[in-house]
Amino acid sequence: MPGLLTGKWTNLPKFTTMKILFVLELFYPNIGGIEKLFASLGESLVQQGNEVKVITTRFQKGLPLKETYRGMEVRRLPIHNRFLFTFFGFFFLHRDAGRSDIIHTTSYNAAFPARMAALLHRKPCVITFHEVWGKLWFRLPYLSLPGRILYSLYEQFILRLRFHRFVGVSQFTSRRLQENGVSQERITTIYNGLDYNKNITARPNPGEVFIFTFFGRPGSSKGLDILLPAAEDFLKKENRKLRLILSKSPAAIYRKVIRYINNAGIAGKVELMHHLSDNDLERALLESHCIVIPSYSEGFCFAAAEASALGIPLITSGKGALPEVVSGRHITLENMSPSALGKALEQAEEGKWMETPLKKFELQDTVNSYKKLYDSLLS
User: Fold this and answer.
1) Residue 4, pLDDT score
2) Which of 39, 112, 143, 298 is most buried, most CB within 10 Å of its CB?
3) Residue 10 has pLDDT above 60, yes or no
4) Residue 17: closest CA among 48, 54, 42, 38
5) Rg for the chain (alpha carbons), in Å?
6) Cis link prior to 29 (omega < 30° from 0)?
7) Listed residue (206, 203, 244, 231) closest to 351, CA to CA
8) For the segment 208-267, what is each residue's pLDDT rounded down to a tens digit?
């Protein structure tokens, strides 16, 4: 019988194909790095003949409870709140957990129910950590003091759940895992991957209006408290526009973003977009003069990797894993302030970029690494 807490599994056959259960707090059509990773990873695993099932929250009422997406069976639980998923998700997923060969989850809210289901059914369980914030919880905006304390405690809790393997999506994230108590032998670094072989729409010539774009989840770490004041000042001049491609979750921060835009009187110069298709998202990004990533920390940053692959210049904070991922034309903020971002936007408008060779993070390398990891836990 496998050792549930040690992660050592013996006398099991090596799997050429397998049944994989993804347990995720959010999934397509939500926008975010986690969703991108598991969508592309799952699709590739299905193409190799594996069976992939996704259990996630139904974060919008209009979403179907069941559907097939890129060959994966997606089951959305009748839970709209991802925090409720932490406490009640186990009761909905334990049957599918028993039918799987391996369970794969991610930080944060899905981690506990996934680990408990794996424990009950004696299944190996992998967690991919996109970020480990530690003390950063107490420096981020948009969070109440009770929220900071609870989030920090929960992060430390799941770091001690003794998953069979912790995956860091960058060297930075793997270091942070180790610094926060995860033993080195349980940590594997697997970069998120992109498909560089797909057809990419030719980038149009930039128009007269200077468009700077932010896209992704409006999370507390994403630097929107820096971007919005910088944009308010920068947009005072003509022929400038901020494009925000946002999910509406977390709802509280999204509402604060909308309120700031309206109170600042810049609504006419801010274009809001939500839940775009892959093609529409690519088109919206390619029309941009630059992508802005003023994050307080990034565990990998799909936005940076994708923009670099598309040849779109970047303005970034340079925090976390961003130095590992950013390439092509880019500007790094001098400090985390609206004035520094405003200065960087002025430089971008004038075409004053640094440039480095393109860094590639091949999707096939990511898939092969996860498949190798799964096999090692099942052999």
Assistant:
1) 31
2) 298
3) no
4) 48
5) 21
6) yes
7) 206
8) 899 999 998 899 999 999 999 999 999 999 999 999 999 887 889 999 999 999 999 999
User: Alpha-carbon distance 159 to 87, whole Å?
Assistant: 17
Element (H, E) at 72: strand 72-77
Cis-peptide into 108, omega within 30 deg: yes
Which is it for strands 51-57 and 72-77: parallel, antiparallel or unpaired?
A: parallel
Give CA separation, 37 vs 70, 121, 372, in Å: 13, 26, 17
Element (H, E) at 258: helix 251-264
Rounded CA separation 202/275 (Å): 22
Q: pTM here? A: 0.88
The reported pLDDT for the residue numbered 196 is: 85
CA atoms within 13 A on the CB side of 181: 11
**Could you give all domains of the chain from N- to C-terminal order, each with its CATH number?**
19-193+363-378 (3.40.50.2000), 210-356 (3.40.50.2000)
